[in-house]
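Subject: Protein entry, chain in single-letter code together with its fold tokens

Area: Proteins and the way their chains fold up in space.

Attached in line: The record itself begins immediately under this heading.
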Amino acid sequence: MSDSPQKPQDDLFSQVADATKTALDGAGDAYLETLREFQQKLPSFDEVIAQAIRLPGTSVNRADFLTEVLRGKFAPVIVHAACQTTPAKAGLTDRQIEKIAKKSLGKDGRRTTALSFAAGIPGGVAGAVTIPADLVQFYGYLIRAIQKLTYLYGWRDLAHIEAGVPDRAASGALVVMLGVMAGNEQANAVLARLARLRAAGASDQTLRTVFTEQALADDLRRISDDLTMRMAKRLGGQVAGKAIPIVGGIVSGVITGSGFDEMAKQLLKQLKLHGA
């Protein structure tokens, strides 16, 4: 498990959960009973990711995405070159790539907030056990963001999901990128290692074979364990928010929207350092 310091989004989840528990002193027994029931049904991180990957629209085709975000802004020859190589090799500047990335992430961030708000409106203690659906949607958007950002920063198809079933390399890449999003220092180190290999001329296939190494398998397990704990904390905060019928949708939306924005920015920051 990572020893990285607690991130702002983690503080937010904890604060919302603690504040709601205090507000529910008069209904504490009902809240605690619901929380215990929910914890018993808590899915594993791998199960949530497997469900998220199968959501319609989670898989992002690299060529289609790059064509969509570049067409009309750059000459057709540049768009074609970006699809064949990378946006940077096609001549896009760092500033241009970052602008496109932020615009794309902004759209997805607004969607995660809207989806979570809609799911949270019914509220009520009895509805709290349905939260995993929210979480699946949330991670589905994170996985979409990972693919878009890695495509823009030249990582080609490392994290691509084909027909809802990622291969071993893509699965490993998603764990690493999600770890980077969460601020896990071990995940940042793995990404830096992959970047060094790529800078030294490693092919896409060589980068994929790295995920079969035992040393990296151990890293992936530790990153996954850390992500599982963070997911449990997120779920706890959402249960607390949804236990209040009137504001449940608002709290859920704020948690999801801010969480997505912060996590996407973390990955963008690291890819700017290691992209090409």
In short: Residues 8-13, 19-27, 113-131, 240-258 have pLDDT under 50 and may be disordered. The CA atoms of residues 99 and 172 lie 28 Å apart. The chain has one domain: 8-274. The radius of gyration is 19 Å.
